[in-house]
Amino acid sequence: MFVYRILSTVLFLILLPFYAIVRVFEGKYIYGWKEKLGKIQPPELGKKVIMFHGVSVGEVIALENLIKKTKETFPEFKIVVTTGTKTGQDIAHKKYENIADYITYFPFDVTISVKSFLNKINPSVVLIAETELWPTFAEYCKQRNIPLFVINGRISDTTFKTYKLMKGFFKQIFKNYTEILTQSNEDREKFIKIGAPENKTFVMKNLKFDVKKVESDIKIGNGRIIIAGSTHKGEDEIILNAFSKLKKEFPDIKLLLAPRHLTRLNNVKELVEKTGFSFGQRSLNDTFDTKEIIILDTMGELSKMYQICDFAFIGGSFNKTGGHNPLEAVVYNKPAISGPSIHNFRDIYWILGRTKAGKVVKNSQELQEYMHKLLADREFYNQSCSDCKTVFEDQQGALNIVIEKLKEVI
User: Fold this and answer.
1) Which CATH superfamily hosts domain 224-394?
2) pLDDT at 11
């Protein structure tokens, strides 16, 4: 590892200027470069600090319930959250501004940056989400007796093939970790095959499945209800077109259309009006007793609305947004459908896709065909709902496992 530290530092010093120049010519900025160099100015944190790291949006979102539960369970500890990307940093500030005591970037994995970072943060324990393996950081944590965990660990098939070729290298890295906690047995086996010790690698399941139902007696009328949740520009047209075609064969179906941003409300109303269907707005207390389409134009109600639908389309997935959380529907045993852009929840859709609980479609035609199958094939639909329940029962509990691990080391 000494050789790695020397080589990584030399290469870093040589390549950083060239990287900066390339970014400038590409019209991009190296966000957080000072913080990544270890030049941070945290508030007074004291000696009790729990640090969480999620490299980007998906990992930061996955940590949400755990960070909240940690704050509740260990109120005497300060919370530090780090990310590796600008988008991750933005989400962290949005979600944890009133929870975390300090939010910053993870340091470059070179000695000067890591030492400066650890000197200023002085964490009591570090939890890193999914597959962030940094040799220098891990070694200095070990030297300072800082417990270091990989949580919600997963390795894609592509990454696994590459890492397996460097098993000897990773075996040395894993010696510095306290434990590796993975999402599945398959992930545990992958970690072990690239060098993680069997006696320090355990299955914790998936943090993202610790979603709570928002119980409500909400009623907005009769009929089979399809929800299009968190739709973005361009997706309303796709949903309305599919709904219009399906309505001819299934006249009992209704649509609850929930745009992600209410600033688009007038545009969405114009699109719905063009369909010729009767429509209303949730803010006006309209119901499906008299309307075929209702636009959800209120804040904070979508998550509880999923309990009244038969199945849901999850928006942000037919553009470059990366999708939204399908588990908000699946937790109510309602199948979820998504377009192809799902990078924020890829691991979730991988789990759902192994059953009939969730489906990723490639285009609008596949979306319509899958919606048709859920409406026409009662046996298939019932199995999909049952699979939702089974998946949740199989995956929940990860949050409590991590909390118990924290109790053991702090």
Assistant:
1) Glycogen Phosphorylase B; (3.40.50.2000)
2) 54
